[in-house]
Structures are given as C-alpha cells and as structure tokens.
C-alpha cells in the first residue's frame, strides 16, 4: 500500500512523543512542548463490579480489508441499515446516499431541506430509528441558517432515486451554531433514547450553562423530548462542560464513551456519567480539579483531533482528523487498560467516522474533501476494517 504521506518514524505501542497544537477540527496553530498520550481512571472510583471485569480480548490490531465506496463528497455521518447497506451524509451537499456494501453502488436518497453548509457546519450526523422495521425513520443533525437542529424523515426506497426522503419533522432546534464547534454526532443508545453531541461554537461559557444546548451531550426521546431519568429536571442535558463532542459509543456494559476536541493541548476520551461536568472551559485534559470529571485518556491535538468512535473487541476505536490515524484504546471496565495504539497513520489522510459493522469488523470514512485535506484520486472513501 502506498502511503499518502511519509511517516518519519515508526510508532511503538507506547506511542511517540506528541506535538501539541490547535484543534477545532485542526488547522495550523502555534505549538507547545511535546508530550505523550496518557491515560487515567475517572476522578471518582468505578464500581467494584467494573473493577473486576476481565481483561479485553487479545485482538489488538486492525487492517483494511477493502474499499467499500469511493468518490464521496465531504462524507460525515454514517449509519448501517438493518436490511444491509450504509447511509452516508454529505456535509457540503446536504444529501444522504445509500451505499451497497457489496458492490459499492451509490443511490442518492435526496437532499435534506434547510441545510446551510459553511465552515464545519452542514449535514452532519445520521441515525436510524430503533423502530426502523416499522417506521422507516432516519434522523439527521444539521446546521441551518440560524441554528443546529435534529430532524427525522421517512425513508421510502420504493420511490425514484433522489425522491426517497419524506419532509423533515424537526424534533429539536436551537442548538447553538458557529463557523466551528457544531458537534453533530447523533446515536441511539441501548435504552432506545437519542443522544447528541454538541459544540459551544467557540463560546466556552456555553458549555457550563446548563440552560444552553451548546457544549453538551443531550439525551432525548425519539420525539425530541427530555428522556425519562435525565439528571436535570425537564432538561435534555445529560452531561455538560464539553468543548466539541463528535464521537459517541456504548460498551458491552451499556456505558457511554465520548471523544472531544481540545483547544491547544489535549484531546480527550471521556467515560460519560449522567449529570457529569467535564470541565470546559475551566479544564482542558486531566487536572484533577474538584467538581470536574477528568478524561480517561488524552492526546496531543496534533495526533488526534478526534471525530467518530466505535467499540469493538474490547477497545474504543477513535478516528483522527488532524492526526490522520485510527487509535485503539483498550478498555477494562471504566479504565483504559494499556497505552493507546495508532494505526493507518498517514495512509488514508484525515479520518472522520468509524462505526461497528458487527463482530470484528468496522466501517471507516476518510475526510480529505472537507477543505482541510489533500484529496487524491478516489477520495473520499469508506473502508472496511477487520480487528485482528
């Protein structure tokens, strides 16, 4: 395989020295002194049951099996369909396309009305209804002219190509929008509630304001109402103090994990607890300050700038944009059990979204056409990976 860019050194399992820099979604910024990816337990102890969980499976590497699809325009959200195939959103075009995972054939469902693509905003995350077999609903998170919002649409594959999306039903509006830090990841959890990662549009205090939807992880019913059991009365807010969350995934014990962009020093992987305050803008990375929950792992922003995450074979797999690599973070309970390992460094450029394909398989999208990459022939791609 020809690498996209020269790799100047071989990365060991314990990881190389890392260079810090910015990380809205990246972009060149002044650097700070080097340091290595580090891990820690959360600031409060996990339960005894979690501590006694067995070590993760031995599978600890990943390889690209094949290219599923190519020539995609600014792919962002990726959602497997129960009957097979993948839905992928185009951030800049505002369209949703179905990918046949066997042939790579692309079928455009249609354009989502109201998408206003600019900067990091546009048509972002996708999710498929937990009742898809009966309702055929697709959920989308997008940037409009005035805000970020979540809609649901009926998907009818029997209609002509380009006309398969029904009129959008807006279930949530008013998420703060900006040129950057729009969040955008949505996913249904094991509880069949819809979760959304949002950004603080470069206004740090919004992340600490529990009345704002910015800089949060939100939890809602499929109709967009505050979900039963949320930590704050009559509120969508599930956790707060986030800068820009673009990765959500659940482990085998139904615990929620989230990736988050740092500012100048530390990108984060967090284990999310209901009502937890994750510190931004008062804290970046692990500072051990009372009242804030520390991340379980941090990276230099030059080596991660994390977007999507997935969990497979006992590890979190985290896609890096500026870092141009896929990170493996092995788990044991609520702790990281070993140093994170990087894979695919520089081979495919910027990596945006990773989702489970079941068992030991992953789907991974590249993000070279988003205005910050160096697109080559065939970009952007969806890749099939196998965990070994």
Secondary structure tally: strands:
28
Quickly count the domains: 1
Helix/strand-derived class? mainly beta
Shape assignment: globular
The portion of residues assigned to helices is: under 10%
Strand content: 35-45%
Question: Layout of helices and strands, plus pairs?
Answer:
Blueprint: E1 18-20, E2 32-35, E3 38-39, H1 48-51, E4 62-69, E5 75-80, E6 86-90, E7 95-99, E8 106-111, E9 123-128, H2 132-135, E10 137-143, E11 148-154, E12 169-175, E13 186-188, E14 194-197, H3 205-208, E15 216-220, E16 237-240, E17 245-250, E18 256-260, E19 266-272, E20 297-300, E21 306-312, E22 315-320, E23 326-332, E24 335-336, E25 341-343, E26 351-356, E27 361-366, E28 382-387
Antiparallel strand pairs: 1-2, 3-20, 4-28, 5-6, 6-7, 7-8, 9-10, 10-11, 11-12, 13-14, 14-15, 15-16, 17-18, 18-19, 19-20, 21-22, 22-23, 23-24, 23-25, 26-27, 27-28
Describe the structure.
It is an enzyme of class 1 (oxidoreductase). This is PQQ-dependent sugar dehydrogenase. The protein is mainly beta and 388 residues long. It has helices at residues 48-51, 132-135, 205-208, and strands at 18-20, 32-35, 38-39, 62-69, 75-80, 86-90, 95-99, 106-111, 123-128, 137-143, 148-154, 169-175, 186-188, 194-197, 216-220, 237-240, 245-250, 256-260, 266-272, 297-300, 306-312, 315-320, 326-332, 335-336, 341-343, 351-356, 361-366, 382-387. It has one domain: 6 Propeller (Neuraminidase). Helices cover 3% and strands 38% of the residues. A hairpin with a 5-residue loop joins strand 5 (75-80) and strand 6 (86-90). The longest helix is centred in the first third of the chain and has 4 residues, at 48-51. It is globular, with a radius of gyration of 19 Å.
């Amino acid at each position: 395989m020809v690498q996209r860019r020269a790799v100047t050194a071989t990365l060991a399992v314990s990881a190389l020295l890392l260079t810090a820099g910015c990380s809205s979604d990246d972009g060149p910024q002044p650097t700070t002194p080097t340091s290595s990816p580090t891990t820690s337990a959360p600031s409060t102890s996990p339960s005894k049951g979690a501590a006694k969980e067995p070590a993760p499976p031995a599978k600890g590497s990943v390889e690209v099996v094949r290219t599923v699809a190519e020539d995609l325009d600014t792919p962002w959200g990726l959602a497997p369909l129960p009957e097979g195939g993948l839905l992928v959103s185009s951030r800049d075009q505002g369209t949703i396309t179905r990918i046949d995972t066997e042939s790579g054939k692309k079928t455009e469902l249609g354009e989502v009305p109201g998408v206003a693509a600019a900067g990091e905003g546009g048509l972002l995350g996708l999710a498929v209804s937990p009742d898809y077999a009966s309702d055929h609903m697709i959920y989308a998170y997008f940037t409009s002219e005035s805000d970020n919002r979540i809609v649901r649409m009926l998907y009818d594959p029997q209609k002509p190509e380009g006309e398969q999306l029904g009129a959008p039903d807006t279930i949530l509006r008013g998420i703060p929008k900006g040129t950057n830090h729009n969040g955008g990841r949505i996913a249904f959890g094991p509880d069949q509630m819809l979760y959304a990662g949002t950004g603080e549009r470069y206004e740090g205090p919004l992340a600490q304001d529990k009345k704002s939807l910015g800089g949060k992880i939100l939890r809602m019913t499929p109709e967009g109402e505050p979900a039963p059991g949320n930590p704050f009365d009559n509120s969508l807010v599930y956790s707060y103090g986030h800068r820009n969350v673009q990765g959500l995934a659940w482990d085998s014990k139904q615990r929620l994990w989230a990736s988050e962009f740092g500012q100048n020093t530390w990108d984060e992987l967090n284990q999310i607890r209901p009502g937890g305050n994750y510190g931004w803008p008062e804290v970046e990375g692990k500072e051990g300050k009372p009242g804030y929950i520390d991340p379980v792992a941090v990276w230099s922003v030059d080596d991660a700038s994390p977007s999507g995450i997935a969990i497979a074979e006992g590890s979190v797999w985290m896609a890096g944009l500026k870092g141009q690599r896929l990170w493996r973070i092995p788990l044991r309970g609520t702790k990281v059990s070993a140093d994170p390992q990087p894979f695919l460094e520089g081979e495919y450029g910027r990596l945006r979204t990773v989702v489970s394909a079941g068992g030991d398989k992953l789907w991974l999208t590249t993000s070279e056409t988003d205005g910050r990459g160096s697109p080559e022939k065939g970009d952007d791609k969806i890749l099939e990976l196998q965990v070994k």
